[in-house]
Amino acid sequence: MFFSRIKNLLGALKPCGQVLLYHRVSPTLSDPQLLAVSPLCFAEQMAYLSRNAVPMALTDMVKAAIEGTLPRRAVAVTFDDGYADNYHYAKPILEKAGVPATVFAVSSAVSAQTEFWWDAIERALLGQNGSLTLQLDLAGESRTWVLSGDPGAYPEWTVMDSFDPTPRHTAYRDIMPLVKPLTPGERSTVLTSIQNQTGVDAGPTEDRCPMTESELRSLVESGLIDVGAHTVSHPQLSGLSMEEQAAQISGSRGCLEAIVGREITTFAYPYGTKVDYTTQSVDSVKHAGFTLACSNFPGCVLNRRVDAFEVPRYLVRESPLSTFRANFEARMRGAK
What we know:
The chain is α/β, with parallel strands linked by helices. It contains 12 helices and 13 strands.
């Protein structure tokens, strides 16, 4: 017990940076992928960080860690995908709290106002009721699901639940991991087939829009929020050829730079776990001229012990402030 307390004390004194990962800040009712944090929850979290941590811009944190000058209790806030609610809900909260942030945007979603594929599947399968048979060619075979039930009766259901209340939920759970590894062209074909068979028009819907070009430009005007790249169309990079990866990575940078009129130097790997990108992906990011890249696996940023092209992040979900605080402080104490 004594040595455990000493270890915790030393951990609390060690300079440790945490990079937090968000996706959406929105008062949404349905969130099967657990991507959204409510505006009230997010405001409480940012106020806590403002009072009890050292909020830093992501680039400043990584630079300080490399140089060995990272302050204790440093924290950086990031968002993946580039949802419009980052602009409408998160931006005012960040400005009020004085907390910098980086938004990693999917360039084609912004430039063409296309719907994120996971939202398209959710709308088609969980956004309506009624019965029909859905047939898809996936992973080299033809698969069939009988869709039925009223998903609207279960708005709080998520993929973390151990049961599926309707056949539509089962189909959703089955199809999502089958679509994730597809190439952008294959994914587009599947989404079109789903929309045609279910009678759902292509989105995006008002509450799941990506930021517009003007919103993205406005986002960075204050200087508090930076924009990074998140590929052209959010593929799983590990499933693409080297040429396709390079096009997704460098293409996103060029498109976003043209939109915001400034250099884009940061990148985040789509999905971001160790199976979602490869060493070739990292090389492509470096070759494209980025100075750092974020992953999606947990870990603290420590002085002189950070890989600028695989920066770890902690995923944040909706939770009471007490849970957020406990998790944040536990990670500080457990820094290694």
